[in-house]
Amino acid sequence: MFTGTGGSGNTGSIKTVPLARSKLPIDTAALARYLIGKMLVRELPEGMASGRIVETEAYVIGDAAGHAFRGMTKRNRSLFLERGHAYVYLAYGSSYMLNVSSEKPGIGAGVLIRAIEPLQGIEIMRLNRGIERLRDLARGPGRLAAALRIDSALDGVDLCREGPLWLGHREDEPGEIGQSVRIGISRDAHRLLRFYLRGSPFISGRRSLNE
DNA sequence: AGTGCGATTGACT
DNA sequence: GTCAATCGCACTA
Q1: Residue A38, CB, strand B, below 7 Å
Q2: Nucleotide nearest to A94 (CA to C1')
Q3: Which residue is closest, via its CA, to the C1' of B5?
Q4: Which pTM value belongs to this model?
Q5: Residue-wise pLDDT tens digits, A59-96
Q6: Domain presence at residue A2
Q7: Which of A7, A143, A157, A188 has its CA 20 to 30 A from that of A122?
Q8: Across all strands, nucleotide nearest A76 (CA–C1')
Q9: How many CA atoms lie within 13 A of A37 on its CB side?
């Protein structure tokens, strides 16, 4: 249990190794499901902040709701990197979103990380967010990015090696994974491309989407 | 150059 | 439940 002593102390209490790129499914929807239960790790000057991924969405090849739909632009170029790289962009002028590129190099598709269960560096996240309540620290893509201080400086980083931001394994298996429509989109809105850890209090979305 | 619109959030009725 | 903030990008002219 973390007691929030304000100092360094959290590093090392959770052992994690980076995800191997070769193990990542070469398919966006499969990757979105695969990432549920994996660790998202942020290395900051104050220490580590990390959590377990509990909610993702797939933006697949040819998806009218995906940012890559109209081809590569200055903003979305990281979506076209080999799978396992970060695509970070600013939504609504105020919230950063973290995606994981998901296909072969040159193909634009990605997985949006929508929520994590905070596990390490919780006091760092509280300071980054300016709120106390654990459940709300990283519930939602913009909140998650704020909690982990993720911004466009991290666009394009390799998430399969230790560094400022990376993905890690956990020993345990995730629980039951639910599936629903994606949140907040209008095009291709019926597709069941949102994945979440069923029963987790740290996922976003209306009650009816989370059953 | 101008316009419209989000892969959201937080404040408010 | 409703609604405005806020800004980069796509699209039109």
Answers
A1: no
A2: C6
A3: A92
A4: 0.93
A5: 999 999 999 999 999 999 999 999 999 999 999 999 99
A6: no
A7: A157
A8: C9
A9: 15
